[in-house]
């Protein structure tokens, strides 16, 4: 090979390897500011610096850590055959704690009920989260803003008053129904800040073997992350593959500049939430501690993570959806 050609090619290859998946995937749609880039670098450095023995103890299903809000308060149903049927329910705190599609095929309400949201304030290093049975910290009591036959809106303010999170969780019907999660994050401070905002779920397709603690497969792309059992992967009567995906919709809005964000679908190789319950280093500021990457034969989890630049007293909005595979 011509060395004059090889040298720049090698440099380009090395750059692509170390630039990070979020930058490479998001280059066409966002222009992150230095503050956002710094937050991403800090999150990746945290994952790189994690001690080798900092592996979380797998949380056994049915052994609750903390039941903050794990009772169905608002239920939404889309009738129909096979996977055009969907039913999900939402807690008073805004956790989706059950999701079925087709009828009787459950993904979240299997043992420990674990789904929810988290915020990282990269300016202060403080974080806030609520994952139902996997614990909650830093949020005040929820306020019900509205509830109809198709949606519920719930507002929460962090206990230090720094952030207001308003969630609208709605049923989108039709032959391919899904649960839409619209999250509005308001910066209540007088400082231009970078926030990390995530939606996370411990996905357990109903036919993953409970005696093996729900081992399954996980993968992710720029916009999505999902857990699934592949067709015929287990013996017995339930050799049918099922899965649940969380997927970003569109692009974040309301930022300090229209393109100042980075988002990524992330699958974790563990079923524990981004919270310091089993490993002190795990929290909403460290989304890369256990992923992303393809993981097979694990009890894992999924999330969509956003790095958002938000002006003082402004509100950023992101949209996600849960849909059956």
Description:
The chain is mostly beta strands and 325 residues long. It has a single domain (21-50, 64-324), classed as Beta-galactosidase, Chain A, domain 5, CATH 2.70.98. Helices cover 12% and strands 38% of the residues. The protein has 3 helices and 18 strands. Strand 9 and strand 10 (178-187) form a beta hairpin. The protein is globular and about 50 Å long.
Instruction: Give the biggest sheet.
Output: 9 strands, antiparallel
Q: For the largest beta sheet, what order do the strands appear in spatially?
A: 7-8-9-10-18-14-13-12-16
Number of helices: 3
Please tell me the overall pLDDT: 84
**Broad CATH class:** Mainly Beta
What name does the CATH topology carry? Beta-galactosidase, Chain A, domain 5
Number of separate domains: 1
SSE order, as H and E? HHHEEEEEEEEEEEEEEEEEE
Could you give the distance between the termini?
46 Å
Structural classification: mainly beta
Beta-strand share of residues: 35-45%
Assembly classification: single chain
Overall body shape:
globular
Q: What is the share of helical residues?
A: 10-25%
| Global Rg | 20 Å
CATH architecture name: Distorted Sandwich
Number of extended strands: 18
CATH superfamily: Glycoside hydrolase, family 65, N-terminal domain
Question: What's a concise summary of this model?
Answer:
The chain is mostly beta strands and 325 residues long.
Layout of helices and strands:
Elements (H helix, E strand, L loop, with lengths): L2 H16 L2 H6 L7 H16 L24 E5 L7 E5 L5 E5 L14 E7 L4 E5 L5 E2 L5 E5 L3 E7 L5 E10 L5 E10 L5 E9 L14 E5 L3 E5 L14 E11 L7 E8 L26 E4 L2 E10 L4 E10 L1
Antiparallel strand pairs: 1-2, 2-3, 4-5, 4-11, 5-6, 7-8, 8-9, 9-10, 10-18, 11-17, 12-13, 12-16, 13-14, 14-18, 15-17
């Amino acid at each position: 090979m011509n060395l004059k050609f090889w040298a720049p090619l090698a440099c380009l290859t090395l750059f692509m390897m170390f630039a990070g998946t979020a930058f490479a995937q998001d280059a066409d749609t966002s222009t992150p500011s230095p503050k956002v880039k710094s937050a991403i670098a800090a999150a990746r450095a945290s994952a790189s610096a994690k001690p080798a023995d900092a592996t979380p103890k797998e949380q056994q299903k049915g052994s609750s850590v903390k039941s903050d809000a794990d009772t169905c308060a608002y239920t939404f149903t889309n009738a129909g055959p096979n996977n055009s049927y969907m039913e999900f329910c939402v807690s008073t705190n805004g956790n989706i704690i059950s999701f079925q599609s087709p009828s009787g095929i459950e993904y979240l309400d299997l043992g420990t009920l674990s789904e929810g949201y988290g915020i990282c304030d990269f300016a202060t290093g403080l974080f806030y989260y609520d994952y139902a049975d996997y614990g909650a910290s830093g949020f005040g009591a929820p306020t019900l803003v509205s509830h109809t036959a198709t949606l519920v809106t719930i507002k929460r303010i962090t206990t230090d008053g720094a952030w207001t999170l308003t969630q609208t969780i709605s049923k989108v019907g039709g032959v391919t129904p899904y649960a839409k999660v619209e999250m509005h994050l308001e910066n209540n401070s007088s400082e231009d800040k970078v926030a990390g905002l995530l939606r996370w779920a411990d996905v357990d397709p109903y036919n993953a073997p409970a005696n093996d603690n729900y081992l399954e497969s996980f993968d992710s792309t720029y916009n999505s992350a999902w857990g699934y059992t592949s067709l015929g992967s287990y013996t017995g009567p339930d050799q049918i593959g099922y899965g649940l995906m969380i997927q970003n919709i569109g692009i974040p809005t309301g930022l300090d500049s229209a393109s100042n964000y980075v988002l990524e679908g992330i699958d974790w190789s563990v079923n524990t939430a981004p919270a310091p319950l089993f490993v002190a280093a795990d929290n909403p500021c460290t989304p890369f501690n256990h992923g992303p990457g393809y993981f097979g034969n694990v009890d894992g989890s999924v999330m969509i993570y956003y790095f958002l630049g938000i002006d003082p007293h402004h509100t950023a909005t992101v949209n996600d959806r849960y849909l059956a595979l």
